[in-house]
Amino acid sequence: MVKPMVVRSLHNQVIHELGRQIVSGELKPGDGLPREELLAERMNVSRTALREAMKVLSAKGLIQSRQKTGAHVRETIYWNQLDADVLAWRCASMPTDDFVEKLVEMREIIEPAAGAAAARRRTPEQLARIEAAYAAMAAATDLEEWTEADLAFHEAMLHCTNNELLVSLFSVIETALATYFVLSARTAADFKYSLPHHKKVLDAICRRQPEVARQAMAKMVVDSRSNIRRHAKKKA
Amino acid sequence: MVKPMVVRSLHNQVIHELGRQIVSGELKPGDGLPREELLAERMNVSRTALREAMKVLSAKGLIQSRQKTGAHVRETIYWNQLDADVLAWRCASMPTDDFVEKLVEMREIIEPAAGAAAARRRTPEQLARIEAAYAAMAAATDLEEWTEADLAFHEAMLHCTNNELLVSLFSVIETALATYFVLSARTAADFKYSLPHHKKVLDAICRRQPEVARQAMAKMVVDSRSNIRRHAKKKA
DNA sequence: ATAAAGTATTATGTAGTACAAATAGTGTCG
DNA sequence: CGACACTATTTGTACTACATAATACTTTAT
Q: Residue B21 CB: number of other CB atoms within 10 A?
């Protein structure tokens, strides 16, 4: 979708192929995978490369392997849902309304709080980074430029919080925004319509007004939620 | 500390040993690791096992390997800070005040919002799980029982939100609470003192009062923050 | 002498074989 | 019928060999 991402190494290909199959539901929790030798042969890679991929999928909580029993897909409870890959695989096919709703809820929780924290703790350098991102948004001439600058804006804001745990949640924000660009009712026409929202957030952070930043950010998220077209037609 | 965790497989041992070294700062961002053959020999494992571990560490964003150049520790920006292992490694040695503050901030952002969402969307079964956890807290006779029940309470509340992205943040809450139990000024004496706070949250969720739940949860976090003893003495 | 091109070197990436260890399932003995 | 030992199977680990990519060096042409 957004990332063409020609995966270089073999085991990375295996990670993404199996990861996609699991997260998409082709392989369901409880399902057993073929034994390594077979699976490796079937995917045209060596058992070595396959195993390296399996270890990574285990680390992401998607599978679990035991001797004799083999590898099984784990219950979704155990998945690292915040993992960037897992989120990406989940959005690889058209995401469900249900999931979009959950992404928006995460934004509603994280971003206003992050905006407030940013207004409190930002350094001049960090502020400059947001300003640069905002300038790029204002200067954008097409949707691609806008998207990139928009993501940079939100990431820069998270960095302003000086809390790397919040920064790590950018993978969620990124996924939410990317999904929004696909589902939004108006991006194509006037993709810059949310620029004033961003301006208010930027100004509040610049002036060190936490509560103003929180409110402005909350409004931006609510507004973007209302701009997601609810596609009642479920068919592909 | 809390988890004795006798790591079974060899590559898991390698993952934890290298992960700990990196997160603790023994190996700094930019540092190059010895080449695989050497490192494997030095850790008394085969290159196979070592590589499986390296792939997992790569997936966690801690290292990056390229041909000829070898593996290097990545900048902390790229670390999956929300990964349960990374959080655990970070708290393996005594966590810094700075980091404790960041954990508390995460709780302040997540838990009140989660409490509100739980009050809105909980099912009877989910409520029963919180009630069970609360009962276990009330019945606890020692710190260990209390700790276990307390974690179960907070996890059950996250499940009530019906948002698996929020549930995945339990690794952060868990780390924060575990750290709190170590640093709290009063756990040893009267470890049950926060029971009333939990009762208020439980009641609000039971009665489907989102804002009440939010406030009660916010108070609990603020209260626990004030109960962390600030150990000015930095020496071990 | 400098810069471009090509070659050598070296570390990771991949394949394949062999065996160790664990465990579900089976069979046997009391 | 139950407990125990045995077997078969699958993952776990080790080792070897070679492919591939990227740096460093060397050669050559201007």
A: 16
Give the model's confidence band at B234: pLDDT under 50 very low, under 70 low, under 90 confident, else very high. Answer: very low
Nearest Cα of chain B lies from the Cα of A12 at a distance, in angstroms, of 10
Q: B159-184 pLDDT, tens per residue? A: 999 999 999 999 999 999 999 988 88
d(CA A118, CA A110): 12
Cβ pair A181, A187 in contact under 8 A:
yes
On whether the CB atoms of residues B60 and B19 are closer than 8 A, the answer is: yes
Residues of B in contact with A164 (CB under 8 A): 76-77, 79, 81, 102
Q: What Cα–Cα distance (Å) separates residue B20 from each residue in A109, B53, B138, B166, B209?
A: 31, 13, 36, 26, 43
Query: Which residues does residue A32 pair with via DSSP β-bridges, in sequence order?
Result: A72
- Separation CA A18–CA A62 (nearest Å): 10
**More reliable by pLDDT, A100 or B233:** A100
Could you identify the residue written with the tokens 């507004």? A223
Q: Which residues pair with B72 in a beta bridge?
A: B32, B64
Residues lying close to strand D (Cβ under 7 A), chosen from 21-40 of chain A, are 33, 35-37
Asked if B80 reaches chain A (Cβ–Cβ under 8 Å), the answer is yes
Reported as a single tens digit per residue, the pLDDT across A75-110 is 999 999 999 999 999 999 888 999 999 999 999 999
Of B59, B79, B105, which has the smallest distance from its Cβ to A59's Cβ? Answer: B59
- Is the confidence at residue B236, as pLDDT, over 70? no
Residue of B nearest to A108 (CA): B113
Q: Which nucleotides of C are covered by protein (CB under 7 A)?
A: 9-17, 21-24
Decide: helix, strand or coil at residue B7.
coil
Q: What's residue A235's pLDDT?
A: 42
pLDDT in tens, B92-116: 988 899 999 999 999 999 999 999 9
pLDDT score of A5: 53
Is B71 within 7 A of strand C by CB distance? Answer: yes
Chain D positions under 7 Å from a protein CB? 8-16, 20-23
Calculate the angstrom distance between C1' of D8 and CA of B168.
Answer: 40
How far off is chain A from B165, nearest CA to CA, in Å?
6
Directed axis angle between helix A84-92 and helix A10-24, to 10°? 60
